[in-house]
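Sanity check. The docking grid for calcium ion depends on where the pocket ends up, so I'm generating a full predicted complex first rather than guessing from homology. Inputs follow.
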Amino acid sequence: MVILVLGACAPRAVDTAVACAAIAPFAHERDGMVWIPGGAVAMGEGAAHPEETPGYTVNVEGFWLDRHEVTNEQFAAFVTATGYVTEAERQPPEKGGPGSAVFGASSWSYVSDANWRQPLGPGSANEANHPVVHVTYADASAYARWAGRVLPTEEQYEHAARLGGDVAIVRENGAVRYDANTWQGVFPFNNTSEDGFLRTAPVGCYEADRLGLHDILGNVWEWTSTPYYPTHQPSAGMRARFPSGLNGSDPQIGVRVIKGGSFLCAPNFCARYTPSARQPQEADLGSSHIGFRTALIAPGP
Ligand SMILES: [Ca+2]
Ligand SMILES: [Ca+2]
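Predicted complex below; grid placement will be based on this.
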């Protein structure tokens, strides 16, 4: 992600949330997770960007996956139990000091003291049922370990997204319906919020897909455990030389794949609210539009 450092942006008021229905129970749900049946997944099918190619097919074993993104309430329980301090809260001076990347009125800034508790910086506050943001790869991994789980791989995530059949923007009979939290209007200057949310939405506000998953597309991007390379099939040499991923700018920085797109993805920019979409993210940098969910490798129902 390219961050345009334009100085601290003024925190904005938390969005006026539209009413969201409670998340309905789903068949065989277990501790907030649903079973993702194993099968072959056509990685990169429908690719719209070079990094989503070349396509390949792989078999994914069945696994359990959180129905929704990890919330601030869930993350707070982890912090209370363990005393964990996120990377954003302890970034060293050479990385800008404590803070994180925030999308303000129309651009990105590194905002001092922005973190999961105050997502837009000092003076802002998180909301319990919204996805936790400003978590790095290490933060997300630490939560997953505490929960006895793991972060999904890119292949697991894409398999779940394809099998669930979620579509972010549904066009029927000339009408448009938004089934995921994305950006309507022209990015980055005009977000009409026709889907109800300018920024993050409470988890599960949009319909579940047929596997029972919410927001597998949209709302916030989600960490996977897969190192990022700018192609689906990097050479063995590239993998060996850059085992933590490669984004081209600084090979010393680990880069992981994030999936699903976010509330900042608009038709004219990003538009990555698709199963095949993938983006690189520096492992040690969170942002206001990246969260995660956890997976569990265990027998099915
Ligand atoms: Ca939106
Ligand atoms: Ca998401």
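Relevant for the grid: The first helix runs from residue 72 to 82.
Also worth noting: The CA atoms of residues 103 and 242 lie 29 Å apart.
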